[in-house]
Amino acid sequence: MKKILIPSCMVLIAYFGSCKPDEPAERELLIAKYRVTFNFKWNAQDFPTDYPSNAHFSKLIGWSHKPSSEFFKVGSIASEGIKNMAEVGSTEKLTDEFTTKIEANEGLKNIIGNGLGSGVGELSVTLDVNEKFSSITLATMLAPSPDWYVGIINQNLLENGEFIDEKTVDALTYDAGTDSGENFTSSNAPTVPKVPISVINTPPIGNGKTIATVKFEKL
User: Fold this and answer.
1) In 87, 116, 117, 159, which residue has its Cα 20 to 30 A from 150's Cα atom?
2) In angstroms, how far is the first alpha carbon of the chain from the final one?
3) Domain limits at 123?
4) pLDDT category, 24, cuts 50, 70, 90?
């Protein structure tokens, strides 16, 4: 009986559905871990207007996410989680929102850190990023206040195809647009409907001084 020789390429097609033995495997994503340190400088000398006796910051909370994310974006409407964080320092609802977004492939990891019992001092967290989710957003309630918070929003750590080793930026102070109070101890005055998130550039907190610097260190 005459043997029938089957070309090896046909065997590969039958087994793998392809005949490209030299085709490279999909490249693994670059990953990195960062220590993010907030150095708060909210003091009576630099911010003298109505400086409160009980200045403090809530637990630092945030996530790593796609650079295209518009969550927390200036001009957007605050979610209930952002509202709760900005008004009372609550992290539960915001954590749930991060989890939902991560499950929808919009983010990688979320984190909750410590709070700070004064206006001056440091808070640090560590957070993972990768090429797809290369941006970090972190925020903390400035307290007491109506709905103000300090944060870094959508800080992309991937530059020219590589993760930066170290970087320091200024944090900004934001108004969540959910309470109409005008000073640190204003009575609760819900803004209905909510107005867009904005950067605060007027007293008592927005006076041109830097309220915090934020250092990113690749570990």
Assistant:
1) 159
2) 67
3) 32-218
4) very low
d(CA 80, CA 77): 10
Task: Place 28 in a pLDDT band, splitting at 50, 70 and 90.
Answer: confident
How far apart are alpha carbons 42 and 96 in whole angstroms? 30
Q: Does residue 11 fall inside a structural domain?
A: no
- Strand-strand pairing, 31-41 and 120-130: antiparallel
Count CA atoms closer than 13 A to 100's CA, side-chain side: 9
b/e for 143-155, b at 16 or more Cβ within 10 A? bbbbbbbbbbbbb
User: Does any domain span residue 9?
Assistant: no
**H helical segments located in the chain:** 8-16, 80-88, 92-103
Examine residue 13 and state whether it is found in any structural domain, yes or no: no
Burial level of 180, CB count in 10 A (0-12/13-18/19+)? middle
Q: Angle 115-81-193 (CA atoms, 0-180°, nearest 5)?
A: 125
Domain count, the chain: 1
The torsion defined by the Cα of 208, 174, 43 and 125, in degrees rounded to 10, comes to -120
Instruction: Calculate Rg over the CA atoms of the chain.
Output: 24
**Enclosing H/E stretch for 210:** none
Query: How far is 108 from 135, CA to CA, in rounded Å?
Result: 10
Between CA 123 and CA 213 the distance in angstroms is 11
